[in-house]
Amino acid sequence: MAVLVHGRLSSPTGRLLAGVLFTLLVIGAYAGYTLQSVRRMRQVQTDIIDQNRKASLQLIRIQSDLNALALAMRDMLDNLDGYPLSAWAGQLDRIRDNLDDAIRRESELAGSRRDPQQTTYLLSSFSQFWSAVEHMNKLAQRGEEKAARDLVRQSLLPRQESLSALTARLLVMNNESEERAAAEIREIYNGIENNAYLFLVLSLASVVGVGFAIIRSNRALFDRVSELSDQRRELAQELISTQESTFRAVSRDLHDEFGQILTAVGAMLKRAGRLAPSDFQEQVREANEVVQESLEKIRGLSQSLQPVILDEQGLAAAVQWYVSVFERQTGITIDYQPPAVDTPEMATSAAIHVFRILQEALNNIARHARVTQARVRLTITPETLRLEVVDAGGGIPLSYKAGIGLAGMRERAALIGGSLEIGNVNPNGTRVVLTAPIPETSGGQENG
Predict the structure, then answer these.
(1) Which residue from 51, 240, 251, 256 has the least number of CB within 10 angstroms?
(2) pLDDT above 90: percentage of residues in the chain
(3) At what angle do helices 278-305 and 259-275 cross, to 10 degrees?
(4) How far apart are CA 4 and CA 221, in angstroms?
(5) What is the pLDDT of residues 149-180, one digit of tens each?
(6) Segments making up each domain of the chain, as ranges
(7) SS3 letters for the chain?
(8) Which of 44-48, 252-256, 432-436 has the lowest mean pLDDT?
(9) Contact in structure between 443 and 345 (CB atoms under 8 Å)
(10) pLDDT tens for residues 279-310?
(11) What's the whole-model pTM score?
């Protein structure tokens, strides 16, 4: 959150960045763990389960060949067809080739996952079995049928049964290994799931923490901005009050001091003109005219600074008077539409702000608009006052930055609870619109 340090707000950027970095670290750690778990799971599934299944298929193939071998040897013992034992040599060779291929493939698939002694024992058992088969074939070829059949009965069949049992045990071991791999995969899944919940909790905690910090920071900033806004508003009110006091003082001095002096000078010039020789009467008259013009300007300036007509006749009359003065001073024609007759009057304490906004708007037209005409509309209802000032100049440029004048207009509008809209109008020009409420208590003239 933001903290006040020596009356200023410390930036929350460091704490927010720390929260973001923590969140990124959590995401990165979880992503790394998940990828590692997936790789491990893929390795377990590929290296153990898939190879176990392929090895089991080869063991089943070995069992099938051993069963075929057992059937062949029983047929040799029964001798139902009357063939000599040497006639079975070709079939036994085919079974041997098939078994050798299956054993080779199974050994490659089993690899290092099987005890080397088991693999050695399996290969040794088959080697001994085939050595016995070769011995049986030699006996059969020499015509020793009885000895060959005894060898089949007493040695080959027991060896075949032993090999079948060994193959069955290897199948069981493969199944057990596959079950362990499946259990390991389930454990990995459970780990990923548990860490997903943990990641979710940490992420939510991080998001909530960062969000809470942002909220606290924004709240502190808004409180500070609100405080500064209140201070600015109070300062603006004091400045505007001081400005109005200054205007009243200057207006009073102009009217009482300089006005009386110029009036006295004018009276003296009139007497001097009656007594002066005819050669100087024209100069005295011209001097008197200059004095009278100066007196009129001082009176107009005094009225502009503190319009007495506003106190005596109200806002509508003051606006009418100022529009006419503005036309004479600037040569800009004002299309003025006064409010309807018998409209309610604003209190003078509020009306002076409307009058100052009108002055500033018209002065801006004279300084910036470069036009010969403008429009002023004053509308007053029992609840609302609306003042509109429009010119057909070039409008407000995009690069324009509001100055003290516009800021003062907005502050004055805010002081009377109103709103001020300033913007461009089509096809060109600027419009200033003031809208303000008329309090129910402002039915008469009030001095503020």
Answers:
(1) 256
(2) 7
(3) 170
(4) 10
(5) 888 888 888 988 888 898 888 888 878 877 88
(6) 4-218, 313-437
(7) CCCEECCEECCCHHHHHHHHHHHHHHHHHHHHHHHHHHHHHHHHHHHHHHHHHHHHHHHHHHHHHHHHHHHHHHHHHHCCCCCCHHHHHHHHHHHHHHHHHHHHHHHHHHHHHCCHHHHHHHHHHHHHHHHHHHHHHHHHHCCCHHHHHHHHHHHHHHHHHHHHHHHHHHHHHHHHHHHHHHHHHHHHHHHHHHHHHHHHHHHHHHHHHHHHHHHHHHHHHHHHHHHHHHHHHHHHHHHHHHHHHHHHHHHHHHHHHHHHHHHHHHHHHHHHHHHCCHHHHHHHHHHHHHHHHHHHHHHHHHHHHCCHHHHHHCHHHHHHHHHHHHHHHHCCEEEEECCCCCCCCCCHHHHHHHHHHHHHHHHHHHHHHCCCEEEEEEEECCCEEEEEEEECCCCCCCCCCCCHHHHHHHHHHHHCCCEEEEEECCCCCEEEEEEEECCCCCCCCCCC
(8) 252-256
(9) yes
(10) 666 777 777 777 777 777 776 676 666 677 87
(11) 0.49
